[in-house]
Write a structure and sequence with these properties.
The complex is a heterodimer of chains A (625) and B (429).
Chain A (H helix, E strand, L loop, with lengths): L7 H14 L6 E5 L2 H5 L2 H14 L7 E5 L11 E4 L3 E3 L6 H12 L8 E2 L5 E2 L6 H4 L17 H6 L4 H9 L2 H11 L11 H10 L6 E6 L8 H8 L1 H15 L3 E6 L4 H16 L4 E4 L4 E9 L9 H8 L23 E5 H13 L1 H5 L2 E3 L8 E3 L1 E8 L5 E6 L4 H8 L9 E6 L5 E4 L9 H6 L8 E6 L4 H15 L5 H18 L7 H15 L3 H5 L2 H9 L1 H10 L13 E3 L9 H5 L5 E2 L7 E2 L9 H5 L5 E3 L1
Parallel strand pairs in A: 1-2, 7-8, 7-11, 8-10, 14-18
Antiparallel strand pairs in A: 1-3, 3-4, 5-6, 9-10, 12-13, 14-15, 16-17, 16-18, 19-22, 20-21
Helix pairs in contact in A: 3-4, 7-11, 7-14, 8-9, 8-11, 10-12, 11-14, 18-19, 19-20, 20-22
Chain B lengths: L6 E6 L11 H9 L4 E7 L5 H14 L3 E6 L2 H14 L7 E5 L11 H19 L15 E5 L3 H12 L3 E5 L14 E2 L4 E2 H14 L3 E4 L2 E9 L2 E8 L14 H5 L21 H13 L7 H12 L4 H11 L3 H10 L11 E6 L2 H5 L2 H12 L12 E6 L11 E3 L2 E3 L4 H12 L2
Parallel strand pairs in B: 1-2, 1-3, 3-4, 5-6, 6-9, 12-13
Antiparallel strand pairs in B: 7-8, 10-11, 12-14, 14-15
The chains are: A alpha/beta (625), B alpha/beta (429).
C-alpha cells in the first residue's frame, strides 16, 4: 500500500501503476470465499490450493484470489480459473492438486468438475451458464474481480474514480441532481427515491449531519447485502463518501447485523484501509472534505432495520421506532439531520456518478423524467432461495419477470415439482401465486400485487409448502420481533397468530377468516412503524391468492401439503411396502411395527407425525393425507 | 463532679420481666458497693404507688441528693420517677434511669451474662448521675419558623404540614429539582400506587404555598444557635438562568452543546461494585476499546457477551457505573436484543436458522431433532453446560438451507442423519 493519496491526480497515477503491474493473461485461481461456499468447506479448499501451489513453487507464477460471493451458492465451493474463466463447481480439497497440475499448468479440462444442467449439458465457462448469462451483474459482477480485503484491487478496476469525479467535477447540487434523475430508489424495500431524500437532508438546517448505511439485513431469506459487504465493501464506502459530500455530512455509520461477523470484519478493514489511504478523514484528496465512517454492530433485533429504531440503536438505546412526523432527514440520529440508505443503494452510487443518470435510466421500467416515482431503474439483487434448483444471488434489471428469475436463471423448481408461490419482501411482503409469473418485478407492480420489494428475498415454494403454515411462520416471526411499543402491533399480531394456529391445528371456525382480515386491517392501519403496518401482508396475500387452502383447513380439516401436523395422518401402503425396516429403525416414537420383508403398519396412537418415515421411504410406500 | 453525693439506687423486678433473667438481688448487692451509694433497694414494681412511696421515703430518710432507678425504658417511666423526686423535694433533673429490661432482660437468655450486663448499666448510671445539675423549666420566645433540609417526599410532607399550620418554612434541596428518590420510582410499596400521582401534586403545592420558601440547588454550609433560635447559612449554587423568567421548559438542557449532567444524589454515597477480577479486566478492556464511541453501551455488551457467552449481572452493574447510565437502562438494552443472554450459555452454541428458506426446507424438524437429542428446548442450555440451543431468524446462508451454525461453523443442507454426524464431532471431544 502506498503512502496517502493526497490529490485526485495521485489516485489516477496510482491506479495506472496498479493496472501496469496486473497481467490479465496471468493464470489466476479465483476461489469464492462467500459464506455459502465457506459453509461448504471452501476454507479447506483454499488451504489445499495454497499448499499445492507452494509445493510446485508456483506462488509467483499463478495468482490465488479469495473473492466475495459469486452468487451461485447452490454449487459451491466455486473455483474460477483465469484467464479463460473456466468454472469448476463443488470443488473439494482433494481436487486442488489435479486442478493445478492438469488445468493450470497444462490447460487440460476436468470434465467432472464442470457444471451440468438438469438435462446433462456441460458448461465450461462461467459466462455461458444460464444462471450467469441471463443476469445483469452491474453491482455484483465486481465481486469476481477483486479480493475484498484489497483496496488496491478495487482501485485497479476503477474504484474511487467516481469519488474523484464527484469531488473535482461536480458540485453537491449536481450530484444530487444526477442521483435524482437516475431514478434510483431505496433498495431497502420501500423504494423512496434516493435523490429526493438526499436533497431534503442537504436542505435541513444544521451543521452536523450523518449518513447511515443500513446493513441490518433482517429479512429472513435475504442475504444480498451480506454478500455485497463481504464481496465489495469499498463500493459501499465510496458511495457513502459521495453521499456525505453531496449532503454535507461529517460522519457516517454502517449498522451491520452481528450475525454477519465476516461482513463486520471486512467492512471495518475497508474503512481502515480507506482512512489510511486518505480517502476518509480530514481533507480528503486535498479538497477540504472531512468525513469518517464508524461501524456499529446490531443486536439481533429485526425492528432495527427500521430507520428510527436503527438510529435509536446506534444511540445505544433499545431499538424502538418513533413516529416519523418529523423526518429523520431533519432530525434523526442524535436529533441531527441523518440520511439513511441501504447497502445496495449506496453501492449503486459510484456506478451512477461514473456512467451518468442517462445510462442508468436505460435499465429498468417506467419513465422517471417527470418524477422519480415514475418507474424503477437499475438492477436489483435477489436472493433466490427455497425450492429452486439454482439457489443463489441473482441480479436482474428492474422489470424482469418472475418466470425469468425462477425458471430461466433459477432453473425451475427442485425435483421437478410444481411451483405454488413465490414470497418476496420478507416478513413485510407477501406471496405471489403462479399466475404472477409474468409480472414484471418492480416497486410499483409488487405493491399492487400486495407484496413489496423488501430487501430482495425471493423464496420459491412448491406443492409441499402449506400457505397457512407459511402465513403463520411470518406472523410468529413478527410476534417475536415486534418491539412492543405500540399496541396494535404488539397485541394484534399475537391475535392473528392465535387464529392461524387454530386453523393449522384443525380448530379453525368459518368465522375465523373474516376475523383474521379484520384484525389484519386494524394492525395495518393503526401501527406506528412499517413493521406493524406491513405485518399483515403475508396473511392478506395468502388469503387473497390461496383462499382454497384456508378453506380446506377450516372446512375439510385437511392440509394438502402435509405440513400442518394435526391435520395429517401417516399410513403405509401394504402394496408398495417391501418390509425393508428402514422406517421402523428410524422412527423415534417407535410407532412403526412389522416383520422383515412383511408390510409394516403405523400405530396412529404413537405416531408424532414427524414425517421421517415419509422422507426416508425409497418405495413411496408411506402415505400422507 | 461532687464526690459527696448521696445516691439511692432502686432495682425493679418488673414482675418477672426482669427478674427471670437478671439476678436482681445480685445487682442490688453490687450496687451497694459503688462509691456514693448510700441506699439500694429492690422491689417487685418500682413504678407502683408503693414503689414510688418507697423512693420518696428514702429521699427524706437518707437525705438523698441523687436517685437512680434501674428498670424499664425512660420512654416509659422517666417522667414518673422525676415527679417522684420533685414530690420529695429533690430537683427533678437529679434523677437517672437505666434500662435493664428492653436493653437487657428481654434481649438476653444467659442469666449470668445478663446479670453482669445489668450491673454495668447500673454502674454507668451511678457514675453519670453524679454529673447532673439541678435545672429549672421556663418559657422563652422562639422564632416560629422552620427549616426542612432535603425536599424528598418526607421533607415535602413535613414542610406542607408546618406551612398549613401557619408556620413559615424554608425548604432546602441540594438538587436542581425537589422530589428526591420518589421522583425516580414508578410505583410505591406495598400498595403499588403510582408514585408520580402522589408526588407531583405535593411538589406543586410546595411551589404555590405562601408560607414555604423553596431553595433548590442549595446546600447548608453552617448551622449555629439552638432550638428556637437557629442561624443557618445556605449556599445557593450558581444557576445562570433568570428564575423569574424561566418557565421550566427544559429546552436549554437539551440544546446545550456541552454534556452536563446534574450530580446524581446517589453518586456520592456509592459503594464499589463487587466484580470478579477477570470480568473486570474484560469490561475495562471493552470500555477502553470503545471509549471514542459516542454510545459505547451496545458495543461493550457485545464484547462481554462474546467472551463470557452471557452477561453476568455484576458486569452490568459495573458497566452501568462506569458509563454513568442507570442500571435500568443497561438492563433494558441487555434484555431487548436477542444477541444478549443473561444466563450462562453452553460451551458450544448451536444456532438453528429458522429463516424463511430454512423453514420451508424443514428447519422445524431439525430443531425438533436437536431438542430431542440434547434434551433441551430452544433457548436452553444442557445441564453439563456443553450445548446451548438457539434459533436465529436468518443466517443469510439460504442456499444451504436448512442450516445450523455450531461455534461459528456452518453446516448446511442438513437432514436428520447428517445432523447426527455433525453432532458426533462435538460430543466425542
Amino acid at each position: 500500500m502506498p503512502a496517502t493519496l493526497k490529490t485526485p491526480e495521485q489516485v489516477a497515477a496510482y491506479r495506472e501503476r496498479l493496472i501496469g503491474m496486473y497481467d490479465p493473461q496471468r493464470p489466476c485461481i479465483l476461489i469464492c470465499g462467500g459464506t455459502g461456499c465457506l459453509a461448504n468447506a471452501a476454507g479447506e479448499v483454499i488451504a489445499a490450493f495454497r499448499e499445492v501451489l507452494a509445493k510446485h513453487e508456483l506462488d509467483h507464477k499463478v495468482g490465488l484470489r479469495i473473492t466475495g460471493c459469486h452468487g451461485f451458492c447452490e454449487q459451491g465451493p466455486l473455483v474460477v480459473l483465469l484467464p479463460e474463466r473456466l468454472l469448476y463447481v463443488s470443488v473439494t480439497p482433494d481436487d486442488a492438486e489435479e486442478i493445478v497440475e492438469k488445468t493450470v499448468l497444462n490447460g487440460e479440462r476436468i470434465e467432472r468438475l464442470f457444471y451440468k444442467d438438469a438435462s446433462g449439458r456441460i458448461f465450461e465457462k462461467q459466462d455461458d451458464i444460464p444462471f450467469y448469462k441471463r443476469q445483469t451483474r452491474l453491482i455484483f459482477g465486481a465481486n469476481l474481480e477483486l479480493d475484498p480485503r484489497s483496496i488496491d484491487d478495487y482501485l485497479r478496476i476503477g474504484g474511487y474514480s467516481a469519488l474523484v469525479k464527484a469531488l473535482t467535477r461536480m458540485t453537491p447540487e449536481q450530484i444530487i441532481e444526477e442521483v435524482t434523475r437516475s431514478g434510483l430508489r431505496g433498495r431497502g424495500g420501500a423504494g423512496f427515491p434516493a435523490g429526493v431524500k438526499w436533497a431534503s437532508c442537504r436542505k435541513a438546517p444544521g451543521n452536523h449531519k450523518y449518513v447511515i448505511c443500513n446493513a441490518d439485513e433482517g429479512d429472513p431469506g435475504a442475504y444480498a447485502n451480506r454478500s455485497l459487504l463481504e464481496g465489495n465493501p469499498h463500493s459501499v464506502v465510496e458511495g457513502m463518501i459521495i453521499g456525505a459530500y453531496a449532503i454535507g455530512a461529517l460522519e457516517g455509520y454502517v449498522y451491520v447485523r452481528t450475525e454477519y461477523p465476516l461482513a463486520v470484519d471486512l467492512m471495518a478493514q475497508a474503512v481502515n484501509d480507506a482512512r489510511a489511504m486518505g480517502l476518509l478523514g480530514e481533507n480528503i484528496l486535498g479538497t477540504g472534505l472531512r468525513f469518517d465512517i464508524s461501524i456499529v454492530r446490531g443486536g439481533g433485533a429485526f425492528v432495527c432495520g427500521e430507520s428510527t429504531a436503527l438510529m435509536a440503536s446506534i444511540e445505544g438505546r433499545v431499538g424502538e421506532p418513533r413516529a416519523k412526523h418529523i423526518h429523520t432527514v431533519e432530525s434523526g440520529l442524535w436529533d441531527r439531520p441523518s440520511n439513511l440508505n441501504n447497502v445496495e443503494t449506496w453501492a449503486n452510487i459510484p456506478l451512477i456518478i461514473n456512467k451518468g443518470a442517462d445510462w442508468f435510466t436505460r435499465i429498468g421500467t417506467g419513465d422517471v423524467t417527470k418524477s422519480p416515482w415514475g418507474g424503477s431503474k437499475g438492477t436489483k439483487i435477489f436472493s433466490l432461495v427455497g425450492k429452486v434448483n439454482n439457489t443463489g444471488l441473482v441480479e436482474v434489471p428492474m422489470g424482469a419477470t418472475l418466470r425469468q428469475v425462477v425458471f430461466d436463471i433459477g432453473g425451475g423448481v427442485k425435483g421437478g415439482k410444481k411451483l405454488k408461490g413465490v414470497q418476496t419482501g420478507g416478513p413485510s411482503g407477501g406471496v405471489l401465486a403462479e399466475r404472477h409469473l409474468d409480472l414484471p418485478i418492480d416497486y410499483d407492480q409488487l405493491v399492487e400485487a400486495g407484496t413489496m420489494m423488501g430487501s430482495g428475498g425471493m423464496i420459491v415454494m412448491d406443492e409441499d409448502n402449506c400457505m397457512v403454515d407459511f402465513a403463520r411462520f411470518f406472523t410468529r416471526f413478527l410476534e417475536n420481533e415486534s418491539c412492543g411499543k405500540c399496541t396494535p402491533c404488539r397485541e394484534g399480531i399475537v391475535q392473528m397468530g392465535m387464529i392461524l394456529t387454530d386453523i393449522c391445528e384443525g380448530k379453525g371456525k368459518p368465522e375465523d377468516i373474516p376475523l383474521l382480515e379484520e384484525v389484519a386491517e386494524v394492525v395495518s392501519e393503526a401501527s406506528l412503524c412499517q413493521l406493524g403496518i406491513t405485518a399483515p401482508n403475508p396473511v392478506l396475500t395468502t388469503l387473497r391468492y390461496f383462499p382454497e387452502e384456508y378453506e380446506a383447513h377450516v372446512r375439510d380439516r385437511k392440509c394438502a401439503a402435509g405440513v400442518c401436523r394435526a391435520l395429517v395422518t401417516y399410513s403405509i401402503d401394504p402394496e408398495k411396502c417391501t418390509g425393508c425396516m428402514l422406517c421402523a429403525r428410524n422412527c423415534a416414537a417407535e410407532a412403526i411395527h412389522g416383520e422383515q420383508k412383511q408390510p409394516h403398519t403405523i400405530d396412529p396412537a404413537k405416531c408424532t407425525k414427524c414425517g421421517v418415515c415419509y422422507d426416508m421411504c425409497r418405495y413411496n410406500a408411506v402415505l400422507r393425507n | 463532679m461532687n464526690n459527696d453525693e448521696r445516691i439511692g439506687v432502686y432495682i425493679c423486678h418488673c414482675g418477672t420481666n426482669i427478674a427471670q433473667t437478671v439476678d436482681v438481688a445480685a445487682v442490688a448487692d453490687f450496687a451497694r458497693t459503688l462509691p456514693g451509694v448510700v441506699v439500694t433497694k429492690e422491689y417487685k414494681y418500682m413504678c407502683s404507688s408503693p414503689g414510688q412511696e418507697l423512693i420518696k421515703k428514702d429521699i427524706a430518710d437518707h437525705q438523698l441528693t441523687r436517685v437512680v432507678v434501674s428498670s424499664c425504658s425512660p420512654l416509659m417511666h422517666e417522667i414518673t420517677f422525676r415527679n417522684v423526686c420533685e414530690d420529695a423535694g429533690l430537683n427533678r433533673f437529679l434523677f437517672q434511669m437505666s434500662n435493664i429490661r428492653e436493653q437487657c432482660s428481654w434481649v438476653h437468655m444467659d442469666h449470668e451474662k445478663a446479670t453482669e450486663k445489668a450491673k454495668r448499666l447500673v454502674a454507668a448510671a451511678v457514675r453519670r448521675v453524679k454529673h447532673h445539675r439541678p435545672m429549672e423549666e421556663r418559657e422563652v420566645a422562639v422564632q416560629p419558623k422552620a427549616m426542612v433540609v432535603g425536599a424528598g417526599i418526607a421533607g415535602i410532607e413535613a414542610a406542607l404540614k408546618m406551612a398549613d399550620a401557619g408556620k413559615k418554612v424554608y425548604l432546602v434541596e441540594r438538587e436542581p429539582s425537589i422530589g428526591g428518590h420518589m421522583a425516580k420510582f414508578d410505583k410505591t410499596f406495598p400498595t403499588l400506587d403510582c408514585a408520580a400521582c402522589i408526588l407531583t401534586p405535593k411538589m406543586v403545592a410546595v411551589g404555590q404555598h405562601k408560607n414555604i420558601e423553596l431553595m433548590t440547588y442549595s446546600e447548608i454550609e453552617h448551622v449555629a444557635g439552638y432550638v428556637g433560635n437557629f442561624k443557618v447559612k445556605v449556599r445557593r449554587k450558581a444557576r445562570y438562568v433568570d428564575e423569574k423568567k424561566c418557565t421550566g421548559c427544559g429546552q436549554c438542557m437539551t440544546r446545550c452543546p456541552v454534556q452536563y449532567r446534574p450530580t446524581n444524589g446517589d453518586a456520592r454515597r456509592r459503594v464499589p461494585v463487587e466484580i470478579r477480577p477477570e470480568l473486570k479486566v474484560a469490561v475495562d478492556k471493552a470500555l477502553d476499546l470503545h471509549r471514542h464511541e459516542r454510545a459505547p453501551l451496545i458495543s461493550v455488551l457485545q464484547d462481554i457477551n462474546l467472551e463470557f457467552r452471557y452477561l453476568p449481572p455484576e458486569a452490568l452493574k459495573y458497566i452501568s457505573r462506569r458509563l454513568g447510565l442507570p442500571l435500568s437502562r443497561v438492563y433494558h438494552v441487555a434484555t431487548f436484543y436477542t444477541a444478549f443472554s443473561l444466563t450462562p450459555r453452553g460451551e458450544h452454541a448451536v444456532k438453528v436458522c429458522v429463516g424463511t428458506s430454512c423453514h420451508i426446507r424443514g428447519a422445524q424438524r431439525l430443531l425438533d431433532a436437536l431438542g430431542e437429542r440434547l434434551e433441551i428446548k430452544a433457548g436452553e442450555t444442557t445441564k453439563d453446560l456443553k450445548f446451548t440451543l438457539e434459533t436465529v431468524n436468518c443466517l443469510g446462508a439460504c442456499a444451504l438451507s436448512p442450516v445450523i451454525v455450531i461455534d461459528g461453523k456452518y453446516h448446511g443442507n442438513l437432514n436428520r442423519s447428517k445432523l447426527e454426524k455433525v453432532l458426533k464431532r462435538y460430543t466425542q471431544e
